[in-house]
Amino acid sequence: MLIISVQNNLKENIELLRQLSHEEYTFQNSILSNATIGEHIRHIIELFGCLLDNYDYGLINYDNRNRDILLQTNKNEAITALEKYLNLIDKPNKTLLLEQNCFGPKEEIQTNYYRELVYNIEHSIHHQALIKVALHGLQHIKTSNSFGIAPSTIEYRKQCAQ
Question: What pTM was computed for the model?
Answer without folding.
Answer: 0.92
